[in-house]
Specification:
7 strands; binds coenzyme A; alpha+beta; 124 residues; Aminopeptidase
Amino acid sequence: MLKEVNDLDLVNDLSDYKVSFNEFDKVLGFFIDDTIVGFLDYSVIYDRMEINYIYVLEKHRKKGIGYQLLKYVIDNYSYDITLEVNVNNIVAINLYKKLDFKIVAIREKYYNGIDGYLMERRIL
Ligand SMILES: CC(C)(COP(=O)(O)OP(=O)(O)OC[C@H]1O[C@@H](n2cnc3c(N)ncnc32)[C@H](O)[C@@H]1OP(=O)(O)O)[C@@H](O)C(=O)NCCC(=O)NCCS
């Protein structure tokens, strides 16, 4: 089940990625039997959205959870969405493409010397 998360310890214990809230930041969690197994960290900045990070615990991957997390924000906000992704992260790039994100620019050496893609999903 999808639920907004306000307790940051819940998500910060899941992976190396640490969420630090600011006034634009939101976290959506995916729960199985009240246990969080994945989350989406995103910012709503006036009339656009930025995806900061998405993560699903390894043993729960490939079950559509990442897809559901992203689909929820796509369906609930009518905003253009942008994100950056490491060019080598084929799994994440596939997920974003499946949800109609397009590569719009290359961010050179964005990830410790490795290029990133800027991807964008425009309101259809
Ligand atoms: C990226 C991530 C969130 C995907 O979560 P997930 O719940 O496993 O993804 P889903 O099961 O919803 O898969 C949706 C789509 O993603 C792509 N995908 C997922 N796993 C994949 C894999 N192992 N190989 C290739 N494509 C894959 C596919 O397009 C898939 O659609 P399909 O099942 O119709 O083929 C997860 O792999 C993860 O947490 N990775 C580590 C963190 C990370 O890299 N985050 C992205 C930072 S930008």
